[in-house]
Amino acid sequence: MSHYKTNLRDIEFNLFEVLGRDEVLGTGPFAEIDGETARSILAEVDRLAREDLAASYEDSDRHPPVFDPETHEAPLPESFTKSYRAWMDAEYWRLQIKEELGGTPAPSSLNWAIAEMVLGSNAPIWMYAAGPAFAGVVHRNGNERDRAIASYIVDREWGTTMVLTEPDAGSDVGAGRAKATPNDDGTWNIEGVKRFITSGESDLQENIVHLVLARPSGVEGLGGPGTKGLSMFLVPKHHFDLETGELTGERNGVYVTNVEHKMGIKVSNTCELTFGDPAIGGGEPARGYLLGEVHDGIAQMFQVIENARMMVGTKAIATLSSGYLNALDYAKSRVQGADLTQSGDKTAPRVTITHHPDVRRSLMVQKSFAEAMRALVLYTATWQDKVQVFEHEGTLGTDEARLASAVNDLLLPIVKGYGSERSWVLLGTESLQTFGGSGFLQEYPLEQYVRDAKIDTLYEGTTAIQGQDFFFRKIVKDQGAALGHLAAQIQSFIDTEAGNGRLKVERGLLATALEDANTLVGHLINDLMSADPTSETGDLRNIYKVGLNTSRLLMVLGDVVCAWLLLRQAEVALQKLGGDGAGSLGVRDQAFYEGKVAAAQFFAQTNLPRISAEVAIAQATDLSVMDLAEEAF
Question: How far apart are the first and last CA of the chain?
Fold first, then answer.
C-alpha cells in the first residue's frame, strides 16, 4: 500500500473552481493544453505518483547510495531507478519547457500542481529530473552553442545541478573562492571545491551538466568581490561533441569527492564537487563554457534559484498534506478511550480517536494549514502564468507584466520560508503526534516525512534568509508596490459581503490582521530609517532591530495571505452549498465544501488573533539581545 496520499479533489478545486484556470488553458502559449487535457494529466499523475513513484520511497531511504571514493560514484538503488524511469518515460516534464526544446508549454499553475504530487510521493525524483527546467534557463540566457547544449540536456535526458555553495562560504555566496581562468579556445578552467550539491552524482543519466558560479581570474575588469564578480559556467561531467551531443569518451575534471550522510532524503546524492584538482581522478582540468558569453552569473543563477525555492516550498507543503491524510486515516481507525462526555463511566464503549477534542483540533490544524499552503503555491503560480502570457505576447516591458513579476517575487519567500517552516513544525507536532507512539515507528511513514522535511527550512536559503530577502528586497527595494497591490486585493475581499453572512466574523479578523501586518511593515521601515547614520538621530545599530523581526514579518504575512486564500475558497464553497445546484450535490461534494468553510473559519479564528501579539513583540524589540556578551549565551 502506498505511503503517499494525494488530494486531487482539492488541487482541482483550487485550479478550476477558485483560480479559474480554464480561462487560460487552451489559449495563447497554452493552446495545446485545454481544460479537459489538464484534468486527464492530473488524474494520470495522481495514479503515477501513488503507485510507481511512491513505490521506492521507503526502500531508497533504507538502502541509500553508497559513495565509492575510488570511482567517485554513488549508484542509486534499483527500486529508485525504476521509479525515476517511470517519471521520465511519462514525459509530463515536457510541460515545463518551450516548444523550441521539444516541450508542450503548460501554465505554471498546472506544472506546480503536478509537482506537488511528484514531490509528495518521492521528492528526489523531481530533483534528479531537473534537467529540462534548468535547460530552459540555459536556453533563455545562452548563445547558439548554449542553446544546442540545452537541447542535448532535454533530448538525451542529462542531469543538471546548481553549484553555488562552498565549504567556508555557506550561504554567503559572494564569499566564494572558486575561480575560472580563460583558455585560448574560448573555454574556461574551473578550480575549487563546492559543497551541498544536490544530484551531483548518479547513474541515472549518461551525463550531468553543472551550472557553476565561479570568479573569473586574470582578466582585467572581471572577478571583483561579492556576488557581482561571479560568472556562470556550464561544466559537464563528460566531454561531448558540441555538434551532435555524443559523448567523446573523455572525462572532464569535475569529480565527486564526498557524498553527505544525512538525516533525510537519503537517496538524493548531496555531494562535494572538486573542480580541476590534479590529484583527483585523472587530474584533468575542469573545462566549462561561459553561459551566453556574458559575465552575469548571479542574475542568471537567480533564475535557477527562484525555481528551486518554489520547488522546496511545494515539496514541504506536499509532505504536510500527505502527513495529514495519513494521520486522518489512522485517527478514523484507531480505537482508544471513551468519549470525553462518558469518561467517568468505566463501562462506556471505546471510540475512535476522532471523537476526542484535542485530536479533532489537531486534525483541523493540519487540514487548514495543508490546504491554505496548497492554495498559496497555486495562487503564486497564477502570477507566473501571467508572466508566461506576457512573454508570449511580447509585452514583458509593460507595467502589468512588471507588476506580475514583482508579485510573484514577493510571494516566493512566503512559499519557501513560511511553507517549509509551518510544514516541518506541523509534521512533527501534529501529524506524527496523531499516531502516538506508533508515529515514532518505521511501519508508518511519518517518521520519514519528518526527517525528509527538515531540509526544506534549510536549503535554497534558510528561513531567516527568506525573511531578510522578503523585507529588504521584495518590500523595501520594490518600494512596497507588490505588497501594496496584494494588500489592496485582500482589502477588497474584506469589503465585500459575499458568504451569506457566515464569514462576517472571519472578515473582521482578517481586517484586523491586515491592519496589524501593515503596522508591522511600517514599524520595520521606521527602524530601518532610524539606522541611517547620516541622519541627525540615526544609529546604525538599529538595523539589528530589523534583523530581529524579519522572520516574524514573513510568518505574519504568510498567515494573513493564507487566511485570505482560505476565506476566498470558503466563499466559493458557500456558493456551491447554497446555489441552484446545491440539491444535486453528492454526499462527498457536500462534505468537501463544508470542510472548506470549516477550515477557513478555524484558520482565521485560531491564527489571526495572534498577529496582534507579534506586532507588540516587534514594537518592544530593543538591542538588549545584541548587547549581551557572547559568554552569557
Answer: 49
Burial of 504 (0-12, 13-18, 19+ CB in 10 A): exposed
Tracing cell 494520470 back to the chain, one arrives at 44
Residue 285, C-alpha cell as written in the block: 582540468
b or e along 434-446 (b: 16 or more beta carbons within 10 Å of the residue's beta carbon)? bbeeebeeeebbb
pTM tops 0.90, yes or no:
yes
What count of other Cβ atoms lies within 10 Å of the Cβ of residue 307? Answer: 21
Catalytic entry in 460, 506, 571, 614: 460
- CA distances to 235, 310, 366, 466, 555 from 551, in Å: 36, 18, 22, 8, 6
Residues constituting the chain: 633
Q: DSSP state, 243?
A: T
Q: Of 148, 9, 133, nearest to 576 (Cα)? A: 9
What are the C-alpha distances in Å from 270 to residues 298, 302, 427? 22, 20, 23
Task: Dig out the grid coordinates for 320 from the structure.
Answer: 504536510
Residue among 540, 83, 463 nearest 267 (CA): 83
d(CA 542, CA 118) in angstroms, rounded, equals 44
User: Nearest-5° angle of CA 32, CA 15, CA 395?
Assistant: 55
Map grid coordinates 518592544 to a residue.
620
Complete DSSP assignment for 556-617 = HHHHHHHHHHHHHHHHHHHHHHHSTTGGG--HHHHHHHHHHHHHHHHHHHHHTTHHHHHHHH
Is the distance from CB of 482 to CB of 362 less than 8 angstroms?
no
User: Please, are residues 368 and 599 in contact by the beta-carbon 8 Å criterion?
Assistant: yes
Residue 262 has pLDDT above 80, yes or no: yes
pLDDT digits (tens, 9 = 90+) for 1-40: 799 999 999 999 999 999 999 999 999 999 999 999 999 9
CB 354 within 8 A of CB 301: no
Verify whether residue 460 is a known catalytic residue.
yes
| Three-state SS at 259 | strand
Fill in the DSSP letter of residue 548: T
Q: Given this model, what pLDDT does residue 346 score? A: 92
Cα separation, 27 vs 29, whole angstroms:
6
Helix axes 297-333, 357-393, angle to 10 degrees: 150
What would the pLDDT profile of 170-222 be if each residue is shown by its tens digit? 888 888 999 999 999 999 999 999 999 999 999 999 999 999 999 999 898 89
Residues 6 or more apart whose Cβ sits within 8 Å of residue 284: 250, 251, 252, 253, 276
pLDDT at 433: 98
Residue 588, Cβ density class (10 Å: 0-12 exposed, 13-18 middle, ≥19 buried) = exposed
562, 555 in Cβ contact below 8 A?
Answer: no
Instruction: Name the pLDDT band for 580 (thresholds 50, 70, 90).
Output: confident
CB burial string 197-217: b at 16+ within 10 A, e below? bbbbbbebbebbbbbbbbbbe
Q: What is the rounded distance in angstroms from the CA atom of residue 81 to the CA atom of residue 21?
A: 34
Backbone torsions φ then ψ of 256, nearest 5 degrees? -75, 125
Q: How far is CA 67 from CA 102, 206, 237, in A?
A: 34, 18, 17
CB distance 574 to 499 below 8 Å: yes
**DSSP labels, 210-239:** EEEEEEE-SSTT---SSGGG-EEEEEESEE
